[in-house]
Amino acid sequence: MVDTITAERLSALQDGDDDYALVDTRPREDYEAWHVSGAVNYPYNPDDEPDEEDVAELRDLLDGHDRVVTICAKGISSHDFAELLAERGVADEVTVVDDGMEGWSRVYDVARVPLDADDVVVSQVQRRAKGCLGYVVGD
């Protein structure tokens, strides 16, 4: 059995000093169009059973990391992939991002903008997945 984490928890992992490998299991074209910073791509098809050569390639890709986090479009194929990693003993700890990239697209960072005025509040909202910025102004 593999554990799951939220996209928000992945965001916290990225901001921390945790040692882990992030593997994006989507097709290469999808990965190249948009991916989580620091992720490596290993296109995974649940219908294809990896052989020993594939497992050796995976070990090289993980570069000695004992902790692996997997992500895909919706958290489905990456879950299958995570189970495979656990079964084959490729990593000591394997985790899946719930809702995959869909969940990641809903992660926002909010920072309050310092102002001299006490009657106005301005917050900057950044969509972590795309880097889009927005502002919320209130009184």
UniProtKB/TrEMBL annotation:
Full protein name: Rhodanese-like domain-containing protein
Species of the source: Halobium palmae
Spans traversing the lipid bilayer: none
Pfam families assigned to the protein according to its UniProt record, in alphabetical order: Rhodanese
InterPro entries assigned to the protein according to its UniProt record, in alphabetical order: Rhodanese-like_dom, Rhodanese-like_dom_sf
CDD domains: RHOD
Ranges for domain Rhodanese: 16-113
Domain of life, source organism: Archaea
